[in-house]
């Protein structure tokens, strides 16, 4: 598929399986997102190969006051065995339109090559809503600008009627078993005074920096709170080191969509 805009966009939907899909979009064409679950629940995305000029997968749930009013979160989403190439965007993004909420996202076995970032969370004051209970494990990353990218002041507003008191809640984000090579910045994690990213957990992370990058400048952190275990290079002091061998959680329970068996011809 080669769409001029978002390629696969399930919206206000549930019980969705996207399996074995190949998406090939020009890498210099913006907004050619691969798969964008939007205010949708019980979603399985597996065995997909995506080349894109934007995020390979972006989870959304409404924009500012409209998303808050509709109040339909994206939740119970499983992403597995994804291959992504996107030089200007993320393998998996959450937001920035997340005003209805995003919760219970599991991602595993992700391969990202020549991608701007692996996982990106983007939001801002006025969005409201929440991103919580996100669990990612077993990522292999080759050549990218940022491994972990979080932005608390991202994007514009649809109009001037947004609520400046609508502060999003970002909490319970876990990354484990990550290997990366040829990386410019291990973490660009930028919360703000109002939008603080809480409950972050990183474990068993090994990042190889690009030539010429100093390890002591590998992380740029503001407005975050969390813990780390066995992370290299050593992250910023806002992430408390709890010692070796303390794995971040990944839930054992399965989503209902995982019990669905597709018909075979």
UniProtKB/TrEMBL annotation:
Lineage top rank: taxon: Eukaryota
Gene Ontology molecular function, alphabetical: polygalacturonase activity
Residues passing through the membrane, by range: none
Organism, as annotated: Acorus gramineus (Dwarf sweet flag)
Cross-referenced Pfam families: Glyco_hydro_28
InterPro entries: GH28_Enzymes (IPR051801), Glyco_hydro_28 (IPR000743), PbH1 (IPR006626), Pectin_lyas_fold (IPR012334), Pectin_lyase_fold/virulence (IPR011050)
PANTHER family: OS06G0106800 PROTEIN, PECTIN LYASE-RELATED
Protein name per the record: Polygalacturonase
Single biological process term from Gene Ontology: carbohydrate metabolic process
KW Hydrolase (keyword) present: yes
Family per similarity comment: Belongs to the glycosyl hydrolase 28 family.
Keywords: Glycosidase, Hydrolase
């Amino acid at each position: 598929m080669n769409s001029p805009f978002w390629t696969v966009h399930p919206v206000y939907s549930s019980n969705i399986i996207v399996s074995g899909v190949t998406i090939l979009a020009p890498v210099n064409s913006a907004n050619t997102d691969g798969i964008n679950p939007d205010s949708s629940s019980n979603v399985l995305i597996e065995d997909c190969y995506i080349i894109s000029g934007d995020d390979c997968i972006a989870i959304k749930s409404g924009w500012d006051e409209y998303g808050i009013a509709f109040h339909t979160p994206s939740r119970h989403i499983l992403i597995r065995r994804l291959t992504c190439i996107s030089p200007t965007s993320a393998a998996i993004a959450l937001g920035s339109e997340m005003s209805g909420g995003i919760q219970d996202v599991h991602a595993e076995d992700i391969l990202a090559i020549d991608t701007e970032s692996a996982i990106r969370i983007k939001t801002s004051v006025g969005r409201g809503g929440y991103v919580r209970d996100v669990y990612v494990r077993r990522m292999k990353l080759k050549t990218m600008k940022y491994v972990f990218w979080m932005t608390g002041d991202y994007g514009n507003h649809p109009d001037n009627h947004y609520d400046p008191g609508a502060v999003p809640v970002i909490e319970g984000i876990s990354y484990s078993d990550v290997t990366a090579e040829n990386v410019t910045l291990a973490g660009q994690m930028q919360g703000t005074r109002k939008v603080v990213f809480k409950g972050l957990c990183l474990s068993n992370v090994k990042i190889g920096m690009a030539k010429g990058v100093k390890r002591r400048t590998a992380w740029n952190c503001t407005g975050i709170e969390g813990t780390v275990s066995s992370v290299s290079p050593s992250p910023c002091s806002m992430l408390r080191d709890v010692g070796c061998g303390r794995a971040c959680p990944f839930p054992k329970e399965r989503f209902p969509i995982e019990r669905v068996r597709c018909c075979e011809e």
